[in-house]
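Our platform keeps sequence and structure together, in a single record for each protein. Such a record has a labelled line for the sequence and another for the backbone structure tokens. The tokens are whole numbers drawn from a learned vocabulary of local backbone shapes. The remainder of this section carries one protein's record, kept here as part of the documentation:
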Amino acid sequence: MRELQLPSYKEQSQKVKERFDRIKQRELILKVERLSKTFDSEKGPVLDNISFQTYRREFVSIIGPSGCGKSTMIRLIAGLEDIDSGKIIVNNKEISGPGIERGMVFQGYTLFPWLTVVENVMYGLLRKKMLRTEAKNCALNWVKIVGLEKYQDAYPSQLSGGMKQRVAIARSIATHPKMLLMDEPFSALDPQTRSKMQAYLLEIWKNVNISITFITHDIDEAIYLSDRIIVLKTDPGEIQEIIEVPVPRPRTPEQFLSPEFLATKKRLEELIHPKKDDDEVNHIIIPPDINENVL
């Protein structure tokens, strides 16, 4: 069978080039400079000399093999971990801890179980000293935006996983942060719900003035959602490549089979799952006491 000939993942249509030109003319929201983090000095740095930047209303995903430091990086950007060396600058200010300019959505459903949907979304607004009536009206609007107005008085235990994550997203962006940080938010969902949540997120992002930094281990998800993809490697966690996704927007599931999508996927698989040498694959030692019938 003849191998499918794909374009280069670096090849962009005029429409895509113009989009990236517009993105790069916007103000910087996040600037990471020579960031390093070590948890165990004997094992060396988890992240080493990481530098990149993101722009207003840009969607950037971070992907890489297990242990490359993806979640550590986003926790550092969120201010939930201390930096060993380097700088993280958000909205022209160097960060030293959590801040209202950064919203965070975790992999787990971090909702308050004793609060209703609307009360969960109100939580950050009330902490900003907004009047309760105003906070409730604002929260109700966000609940409507994420399509949960029928469940505004429900408790988290009464919601599906996808619904809980929609509430978490609404709560995170209700306070109008500059950035939304998302740490594998859909990984615990079944494939059908995950696909729906990806579509919800793109629709919300299209209508909200916010930059998104998204951690994922799913190659298709990274391509489908992102403007750019930062690819990390392990030991230590360093940037291998930053890829400008050549797939045009608006995105649709049909694009998963487009030449641009498949070319980008091929490159990501080469970076994240490089082929092993024949010696590594073929030299498998079988203990002599294993029953031959099992083999």
About this structure: The chain has a mean pLDDT of 89. Residues 14-101+180-280 form a domain with the Rossmann fold fold (CATH 3.40.50.300). Strands lie at 28-37, 47-55, 59-63, 85-90, 93-94, 102-105, 179-183, 211-215, 228-233, 238-244.
